[in-house]
Specification:
Blueprint: E1 2-5, E2 8-10, H1 20-39, H2 42-58, H3 66-86, H4 88-91, H5 109-115, H6 119-130, H7 135-142, H8 146-166
Antiparallel strand pairs: 1-2
Helix pairs in contact: 1-2, 1-3, 1-6, 2-3, 5-8, 6-8, 7-8
Length: 167
């Protein structure tokens, strides 16, 4: 149970009796990887991670199950990264070179080619192959249609095929 105000008690909003610490431990890597895939910068991805979990702490609704919670976290991550990418501050700044400190799974020839794709393609590739979501689930998370997700996946695969085949 969470104490909101003195004398006022609110039921736990997380499924299976989880706490904020449990949720963070379980989903922080997932949120970070998606943020990093979108913004391509370790420091901005860390800022997005913090923003997402601050919003989670302030969220008032209860989550039905772990999948509902994970989908909510991914949706907020997408929205936060979209807001950052569209901000005037971000457009007129130069990011620090953090390729040396890139996460372990995000190194290698294939991932470096995925990182060169436009954001809309990187997002669907990441959610489909790294997080294991189906096209319909990705459509729900990103707020697009399933046909759009399938088209983006196909175009991203075609681009990757061309660039990797050429090398």
């Amino acid at each position: 149970m969470l104490v909101v105000k003195e004398g006022e008690v609110m039921q736990n909003k997380f499924p299976d009796g989880m706490t904020v610490e449990n949720v963070f431990d379980k989903y922080c890597d997932t949120v970070y990887r998606l943020a990093y895939a979108r913004v391509q910068n370790k420091f901005d991805a860390e800022d997005i991670l913090q923003t997402v979990f601050l919003k989670l702490c302030r969220e008032k609704c209860a989550f039905n199950d772990a999948e509902h919670l994970k989908a909510w976290l991914l949706k907020v991550t997408l929205n936060s990264s979209k807001n950052l990418l569209k901000s005037g501050w971000f457009r007129f700044t130069e990011g620090l070179n953090d390729s040396i400190t890139a996460p372990k799974h995000e190194t290698g020839e294939v991932y470096s080619e995925v990182a060169k794709l436009p954001v809309k393609y990187r997002t669907v590739i990441h959610l489909h192959y790294f997080e294991g979501y189906s096209c319909s689930e990705i459509a729900e998370i990103t707020g697009t249609t399933e046909a759009t997700v399938k088209t983006r996946l196909k175009r991203a695969r075609d681009r990757l095929k061309d660039t990797l085949k050429g090398e």
